[in-house]
Every structure is written in C-alpha cells, then in structure tokens.
Design a protein that fits this description.
Low-confidence stretches: none
Order of helices and strands: EHEHEHEHEHHEHHHEE
Number of helices: 9
Shape: globular
Strand order of the largest sheet: 3-2-1-4-5-6-7-8
Radius of gyration: 18 Å
Length: about 260
C-alpha cells in the first residue's frame, strides 16, 4: 500500500471529467501538496478541492503541454513550490483525429516531455526521493481503434513509453515506478460532445464501426476515478490495467522479442 503521508502530487489534466474526480479522491489522502496543472485555471474548482481538506496545500500551475517551453516553465514553478515531486499523474487527453498533429502532441508527445522534464525532481539519484508516474492511456492503446486510428496510435505510444520507463534497471536507479491505466469508454463531457457531433466521420467509416462507438456502454467518471486511485494505492512498477465497465483488469503484455 502506497504511503501518501506528506507527499507532493502533481496532476496534469483538465478540471472536468475523470481528472477532477481523481483530484477529489486524492484530497482524502494525507498529502502535503496537490498541484493541478492545466492550460486554463478554474478558480471555483480549485476552491472546491481546497474545501475538501484544509490540511493539504492546493496549487495551480499553468501548462500547455504542446509547448515545450511552457512545460519547462511549469516544472520550474512546481519545483519552486514543492521542492520535489512524489507522484505525477499524466491525465491530459484529446479526441481530435482530424487534427493529427494536435492529437499526437497532446496525447503522446506532451506526456513524454512532461514526464522527462519532471524526472530529475523525482529521481532518487538526482533531486527526488523516488515516486510514481501514472500515465492515463486508453483501451485503444491496447487494441486497434478503427473509429479513431490517430488517437489509438498515440495511446499505443503511451503504453510503449510506460512499459519502457518501467524497466527494472531504470527503476533500481531512479526509484520511480511507472504505471499505465487504460480506461474504457467513459461518459466525460468531451466524449459526449464528440458523440453528438458525429466526430469520427471525418473519414469514411462503415455503419457497423460507427454504431459500435455510439452504442458502447460507458462507465462514469466517478467510477473510473475510484478505480484509478485504488490502483495508485496498490501500485506495481510496470503495472498495466484496464479500467472499464465492470471494474479493473490487469493486463499482462505478450513478449514477442528480446535482445
């Protein structure tokens, strides 16, 4: 069981949907600091979080994860506030297949840049004490996503990055564990809006694929967040999990080749 006492947690993501629900549950832990990083500040949401637990310091740091200079400024500001980081949750995601560059930049490149820029202040061999990086991917990072192939490609990248960073040789040196959580279809505001807009139809799809997306049973953000935080409690370096309707399932990747 992870010891949350006096820990500094950084959540990178939006103030809605799964992200806010995860932050609410983290406020029930005996943390010292919770830093919420997003492109736009939401004062009311920050006040709601702070009201949940006056013993935890809640901060906001602006970040644009498609801009490397913004990531560097954000990490510098975070370190100035908390000194080092114990837990990093990468929760930013976007469904925008028509904009290939943005889809890759937000879902994959930004996550990688954020993680690697933060690592020195987590790495026990540098300025940190070790910790956990939790990357939120998707079930479409494990399986093909014919309705949104660019998003699926980016999330496959997140899975590959997480597995690589969880290598035991790296973990023994840095003390930083990597965990990948792959939510299934979730009734977030973003997802529901996109469904209303028939957002996947920018390229020809069969009716069968479209209907599969539209008719999928969805979990609530609240249920998803409960499972995410529970998995953080019982972290395992290199752990990969599907978090979907019906609960949580650990994924054991097949190994097809080794050096």
């Amino acid at each position: 069981m992870f010891d949350w006492s006096d820990k500094s947690v950084v959540y990178v993501g939006a103030f809605s949907g799964i992200g806010f629900q995860v932050c609410q549950r983290l406020m029930k832990k005996p943390l010292k600091n919770l830093v919420v990083c997003s492109r736009m500040e939401n004062v009311e949401m920050l006040k709601k979080l702070q009201a949940l637990n006056s013993d935890i310091n809640v901060y906001f740091v602006q970040i644009n994860i498609v801009d490397h200079a913004s990531i560097e400024r954000a990490v510098k500001n975070i370190v100035a506030i908390v000194g080092h980081v114990d837990v990093l949750v990468n929760g930013v995601g976007v469904l925008a297949d028509k904009d290939i560059e943005t889809t890759i930049a937000v879902n994959l490149t930004g996550l990688i840049n954020t993680t690697l820029t933060m690592m020195p202040w987590m790495d026990k061999s540098q300025y940190g004490n070790g910790g956990i990086v939790v990357n939120i991917a998707s079930v479409y990072g494990l399986e093909p996503g014919p309705a949104f192939s660019v998003y699926s490609a980016a999330k496959h990248g997140v899975v590959g990055f997480t597995r690589s960073m969880a290598d035991e040789h790296l973990f023994s040196r840095t003390g930083v564990a990597f965990v990948c959580i792959c939510p299934g279809m979730t009734s977030t505001e973003l997802m529901m809006n996109k469904r209303d807009m028939n957002w996947t139809k920018w390229v020809p799809h069969t009716d069968e694929i479209w209907n599969t997306v539209m008719e999928a049973k969805m979990q609530t953000p609240e249920d998803c967040a409960v499972n995410i935080v529970n998995l953080m409690d019982d972290w395992k370096n290199g752990g990969m999990y599907i978090c979907s309707v019906g609960g949580v399932k650990e994924v054991i990747p097949a190994v097809h080749w080794r050096i």
